[in-house]
């Protein structure tokens, strides 16, 4: 049904907001949809804060998160992704994954001052705490969501001091998830069926069979030709006009007098020219 991407500074209160949103969406959907909260600390991901200490460990962590998102996306699920999602390129990947499944999207930006994030991070212990160096580095690298780009839209901003979440924000989010615009997959990413390995052979063999039967049936008589491709497959084809139809017009001119203004050229060249014109008229119908 929909995807909610949470974004914000590390230790900005994203998980708290994600829990609030899950509770609201469960009540709003009244059990008609599954509301799933995917967090980096989920037992099947268990991404430690230390994963952001270096690019060598952060890249596979993001890959695991994206894989989990793709696996959980479903038309019958409201998926909330609780992670920093601080790189706009990664948010775009999430958006594309949602678009492939044709689910609605929304982004929630948890806006918290850096000083408050430092304060809250210092209250954490063990694996739940960012190192001071990593925290400052992530502050510098954070790419703020923008409502001007499609992968961050619609964008809902929550101030760290907004508690509870304003009802207008909740109502707007629900409308976006329940009635928002669905974006079709990019045609460049949609999987297309490949032709079988024997396609070229089948093409050449079948077209030759059709041409041979058409030419054999034509023999100057034309009309409707029944083409047999196999014991259980036949085609009907109307080919060139019959010989009778070709000569009928000219025979009237001979037996009843000319049907054209002026004299008629009955030489081989004249008859041939009129015959070619007649054929062209028939083939263009």
Outline the structure in words.
It comes from Rhodocollybia butyracea. InterPro entries: KTI12/PSTK (IPR013641), P-loop_NTPase (IPR027417). Keywords: ATP-binding, Nucleotide-binding. GO terms for molecular function: ATP binding. This is Chromatin associated protein KTI12. There is one protein chain. This protein has 285 residues and is an alpha/beta fold. It has 2 domains: 2-179, Rossmann fold; 199-283, no CATH class. The chain has 9 helices and 7 strands, in the order E-H-E-H-E-H-E-H-H-E-H-H-E-E-H-H. It has helices at 14-29, 55-72, 88-101, 114-122, 132-141, 167-179, 199-218, 243-256, 268-283, and strands spanning 2-8, 34-39, 77-82, 104-111, 155-159, 224-230, 233-238. A 5-stranded parallel beta sheet has the order 2-3-1-4-5, sandwiched between helices. A two-stranded antiparallel sheet has the order 6-7. Helix 2 links the parallel strand 2 (34-39) and strand 3. The chain is elongated and about 110 Å long. The chain starts with a strand and ends with a helix. The model has no long low-confidence stretch (mean pLDDT 83).
Topology:
Elements: E1 2-8, H1 14-29, E2 34-39, H2 55-72, E3 77-82, H3 88-101, E4 104-111, H4 114-122, H5 132-141, E5 155-159, H6 167-179, H7 199-218, E6 224-230, E7 233-238, H8 243-256, H9 268-283
Helix pairs in contact: 2-3
The outline comes out as elongated
The overall pLDDT, averaged over residues, is 83
Multimeric state: single chain
What is the CATH architecture annotation of the largest domain?
Answer: 3-Layer(aba) Sandwich
The structural class is alpha/beta
Distance between the termini: 51 Å
Helices, by number, come to 9
C-alpha Rg, in Å?
36 Å
N to C succession of SSEs: EHEHEHEHHEHHEEHH
Number of domains: 2
The beta-strand count equals 7
User: Could you give the order of strands across the largest sheet?
Assistant: 2-3-1-4-5
In CATH, the homologous superfamily of the largest domain goes by the name P-loop containing nucleotide triphosphate hydrolases
Portion of residues in helices?
Answer: 40-55%
CATH third-tier fold name of the largest domain: Rossmann fold
Low-confidence stretches: none
Sheet with the most strands? 5 strands, parallel
- Text of the CATH class of the largest domain: Alpha Beta
Task: Classify the beta-strand content into a percent band.
Answer: 15-25%
GO molecular function: ATP binding
Keywords: ATP-binding, Nucleotide-binding
Protein name: Chromatin associated protein KTI12
Family: Belongs to the KTI12 family.
């Amino acid at each position: 049904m929909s995807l909610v991407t949470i974004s914000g500074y590390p230790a900005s209160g994203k998980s708290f907001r994600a829990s609030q949103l899950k509770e609201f969406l469960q009540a709003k959907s009244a059990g008609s949809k599954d509301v799933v909260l995917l967090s980096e600390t989920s037992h099947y991901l268990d991404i430690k804060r230390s994963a952001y200490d270096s690019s060598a460990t952060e890249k596979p962590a993001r890959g695991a998160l994206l894989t989990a998102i793709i696996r959980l996306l479903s038309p019958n699920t409201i998926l909330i992704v609780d992670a920093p999602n601080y790189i706009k390129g990664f948010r775009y990947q999430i958006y594309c994954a949602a678009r492939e499944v044709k689910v609605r999207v929304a982004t929630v930006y948890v806006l918290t001052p850096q000083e408050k994030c430092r304060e809250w991070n210092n209250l954490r212990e063990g694996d739940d705490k960012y190192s001071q160096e990593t925290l400052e580095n992530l502050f510098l690298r954070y790419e703020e969501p923008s409502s001007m780009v499609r992968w961050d839209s619609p964008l809902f901003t929550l101030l760290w001091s907004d508690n509870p979440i304003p009802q207008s924000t909740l109502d707007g989010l629900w409308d976006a998830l329940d009635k928002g615009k669905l974006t079709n997959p990019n045609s460049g990413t949609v999987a297309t069926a490949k032709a079988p390995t024997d396609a070229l052979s089948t093409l050449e063999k079948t077209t030759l069979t059709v041409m041979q039967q058409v030419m054999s049936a034509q023999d100057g008589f034309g009309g409707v030709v029944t083409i047999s491709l196999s014991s259980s497959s036949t085609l009907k084809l109307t080919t060139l006009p019959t010989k009778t139809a070709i000569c009928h017009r000219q025979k009237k001119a001979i037996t009843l007098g000319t049907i054209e203004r002026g004299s008629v050229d009955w030489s081989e060249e004249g008859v041939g020219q009129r015959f070619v014109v007649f054929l062209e008229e028939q083939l263009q119908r």
